Task: structure prediction
Amino acid sequence: MESPQSSKGPLKVFEPRYQPKRLRPDQNAILLTEFVNLSEDPLATVRFKQELARKFEIGFAELFPEVELHEEACEVSNGLPVNPPGQPVYQDFFDFIRTRLRRIWEDPNPRRRELLILGLRDYVNALRKPLPQRVHRLVLVAYWGEPQDPEEPTPLEQALIYLLKSVAKLRCCPNSECPAKYFFASRQNRRYCSEKCAQIGEREQKRDWWSIHGKDWRNRREVPR
Result:
């Protein structure tokens, strides 16, 4: 009697499906703020990779599986820049995402922020599709029906979902010398990212006030009663 395997051919082996690490809300905030505040210095990018891997206890390839997929999309699409010779693949991807995150943070219109986030999330999600679909889904598209058997969101896509829910908290610190000016505000009326920047800002405001109104104020004080 033949075994089921010999009568039907070899059994098909399915590779285990990629299961992204689930990030907590605070980890989503850390990922986004460190990404959007990332310096353009290549050494800063290397440190960024190492620090995130250490904080999240996850390998770089697992944290950002989109990096290599982004490179493939750039090579076959006229709508995306090709990675410059000699530049690491991850550097081009980080530049691409950071530029768009900063545009989201700096846009004063909440509705436009939401649309920009949705567009970026759609691109990140599309990177995991077969290559032809990736190239044709670089902008928001409308389609009927629900995706069949959707994949779990990667850490970056999880962070973008968190960002969409936190649009009202996005702030840019007014301190012109702040090294990390993009942040999430814990209170509606919060303007500065830290007490240190708030103190610097208050001193700048006082200097500006004195430079404009100081002479008039002193003249009024000197008028004899």
